[in-house]
Write a structure and sequence with these properties.
Layout lengths: L2 E5 L2 E2 L5 E2 L4 E2 L4 E2 L5 E2 L2 E2 L12 E5 L6 E9 L6 H8 L10 E10 L8 H14 L4 E9 L3 H9 L3 E5 L3 E7 L5 H9 L2
Parallel strand pairs: 6-9, 10-11
Antiparallel strand pairs: 1-8, 2-3, 4-5, 6-7, 8-9, 9-10, 11-13, 12-13
Protein name: N-acetyltransferase domain-containing protein
GO molecular function: acyltransferase activity, transferring groups other than amino-acyl groups
Pfam families: Acetyltransf_1
Length: 188
């Protein structure tokens, strides 16, 4: 597969981000509304201005074949319960700042297991790291999605909250490493 990874979010005339207008030198063409993932069109991106979504495109399968997609919000406003759970793992001197959120990650079934999801996740982690005062990148995942949960843990995400059907994870950027937090949690 001839995979290309590229940012896919630009700001439209009214200031709202869209995928439809991307011009990226990696793609060599405009990203347009004919681009599809699993046969469904991808037409909107809801991330904040300046923080793009990111796509994986298989050029060998066709000019509009999106095989992976991630949507992030930076900054992200969590529920009070989520924020308390994420902040509970921070030391007092690390608690000033805000958070990012990986809202959606999807890789086409026939492309899974090829590192595309890892690449997309690392992009989101790096994007959060590049924004001043972001303490952690968060995400919600269904309890049934064991493959994704394995990936998130491998990348250093830590479960901070459990809902009825899902888990809430955080990847911490500040002084304490995720490994030291994991060690502290396993000692409890």
């Amino acid at each position: 597969a001839a995979l290309v990874f590229a940012p896919c979010c630009v700001t439209s005339m009214d200031g709202s981000p869209t995928i439809g207008g991307l011009l990226d030198e990696q793609l060599g063409r405009d990203f347009d509304n004919n681009d599809k993932l699993n046969g469904l069109p991808i037409t909107t991106c809801y991330s904040k201005k300046g923080v793009p979504c990111y796509v994986a495109i298989d050029n060998s399968a066709g000019a509009h074949t999106v095989v992976g997609y991630i949507k992030i919000y930076i900054p992200y406003e969590m529920t009070p319960q989520q924020e308390a759970a994420v902040r509970a793992k921070l030391s007092p001197h690390e608690k000033k700042g805000s958070f990012g959120n990986i809202q959606m990650v999807e890789v086409a079934k026939s492309y899974r297991g090829q590192g595309i999801g890892t690449h997309l996740m690392n992009y989101a982690i790096d994007k959060g790291r590049s924004v001043p005062d972001i303490l952690a990148m968060t995400l919600t995942v269904s309890k049934k999605n064991t493959r994704a949960i394995e990936l998130y843990k491998k990348l250093g995400f830590i479960q901070v909250m459990e809902g009825r059907f899902d888990f809430f994870f955080a990847f911490y950027y500040q002084r304490r490493t995720n490994q030291s937090i994991l060690r502290a949690n396993s000692a409890v």
